[in-house]
């Protein structure tokens, strides 16, 4: 016995015991992690979960509180992310997508294999204009579950924003073939619209609205507003008005409906009414786009000083608060401000994205800079899908006329 | 048609042209400590002046010289204060306005200019809310209460933030917490989460059963990986994981094959172990970078992680010593029954990892 109790043996036994204890602790922790609570996500707009403004606020607050108690519950993080994305759409608060991303990554804690979480992450990246990253994640998800239509929607959205229309439309076709749904119909509508088929787009968007759950009031308002916008493009103001009213009934004060209704009022000549609506919206959620729209209305009303004030705000906003190079370039060109800079900004934007609206902004900036040849090349790209967007067509006509004059 | 993004999970598309999803440069940092507060609003001076003039109903000026522009910004401080509010329990207070143009610090300074709002916190105030009406988009409000952690709130320009509680937050990690946490991380990175490092250390151990030789090799290995771990974490050296990881696996193969070929420690072994230690150090750094190091306790965390790794390695050796002590009494038997078969297995595993990590 005495021979066994030597100092060397005791040290060895102590070390072995310590190692065994540490391995047990580490394994226990791993085991605990594998039993981290996971709340099965129930997304807003499904299973009777409402999406009115109050419901979204209440649900966001509740999920934030639950996630504070259980920060590793990926299911809760997914539900919070879903709600925050909805709120981002109705409040214009782009930071909510970042909050959602952080909550999700904190919950994942390095576990990148969660399919549901990655599905949301792809959408979050899309909303932050990180299109390539969104496509990469969605493609991984698609490889993991080829029968999930949502992944094709995200892939299509990403390609669409980058101007890779063939890929985008292929993805949307696949999405519809797998499972027709509100999301799929909405994408079909957009694809048709880009190709100049406005009545077909209205049909598809109407199907999308019809396929939206009755208690998903936010989605319903959004779809109705989109239909209204399509009617405005067709010059059918009465139909557009009833869509915006339906949208406002579903979700009072939905910004898309308010802006749409202001467009109808302005088209009917009630510019002061349109100004009032947009001013109210600007008070709660100011954006450069709203300032630019207000500026245009003031100019039409002959209120030059007010127009100039709003234009200054729009320019400042697009430069600093909500940078969107394509929009800034287009705005500068539209309003004959800093044309050389508009060209530079549009060229930089067009180096990254090849969508028809970026090409149009570039063409318009070239036109204003007197570079008709470059403008023709750029506007040809903007027209390549067969769009009937009134602005793009007007720009194309102006550029063609300038080219004719130059040719003579 | 200007929809800019689709939100797959929300089964719809969204329009970023109307509601942009880009976050701009506007942000505010608010510190509430003791009886005082300080809120720094980051601004671009040129666009700030445009906004102040627009909101103040003045004609908007363009391209003013720097000094004149800054002077006008100061003149329009009332407009800034009218569009900003700091509320304690719903009651607004009037802060002091100070404009800090970045060029005042250096002509080449890259940091943004700042509007600093300062004032006193009313006694007994429980909540604070903030509004910055000059932002035409979303901005981040970073709030620190006392010495608590920074909390980020995303706010739309024009809207008042949700009330933020002024109650003291839990204090950040102490140095003792950090040391304990990173010691454990270092140790568990070897046992049980580092099978490649375990095999390498076992490879070192198998060649000789003499304590002195083992300690010499392990010390050399330690010295080497400590050097590259520190250099990599401080950003002085860097190699991509795609290169490091296969090389670590290859080092395991080498040590195991050498165990099969030679029967005792050769002089070059220490030099090789040192080189391999340099590689493993960069591997440790990759892990540590992924885990993240607390900025305030960087050195303590780095040292603790290193010590934890050492403890893990020594534990592996101690266990191996204890487990194989019986066989080590006969050198021939030990080599034939333990060293050679074990080294062969280690070499094969190392080879598999090398291929797996390289392709």
Offer a concise description of the structure.
The complex is a heterodimer of chains A (408) and B (359). By secondary structure, chain A is an all-alpha fold.
Chain-wise SSE layout:
The complex is a heterodimer of chains A (408) and B (359).
Chain A: H1 7-34, H2 53-69, H3 74-91, H4 95-108, H5 115-127, H6 131-144, H7 149-162, H8 165-178, H9 182-194, H10 198-210, H11 217-234, H12 237-250, H13 255-267, H14 271-284, H15 288-300, H16 304-321, H17 325-334, H18 339-352, H19 356-368, H20 372-382, H21 390-407
Chain B: E1 5-7, E2 12-14, E3 27-33, E4 36-43, H1 45-55, H2 66-75, H3 77-82, E5 84-88, E6 91-93, E7 96-100, E8 113-120, E9 127-132, E10 138-145, E11 150-156, E12 164-165, H4 175-190, H5 195-207, H6 211-233, H7 241-261, H8 267-291, H9 298-324, H10 331-358
Parallel strand pairs in B: 3-10
Antiparallel strand pairs in B: 1-2, 3-4, 4-8, 5-6, 5-9, 7-8, 9-12, 10-11
Helix pairs in contact in B: 1-2, 4-9, 5-7, 5-9, 5-10, 6-8, 6-9, 7-8, 7-10
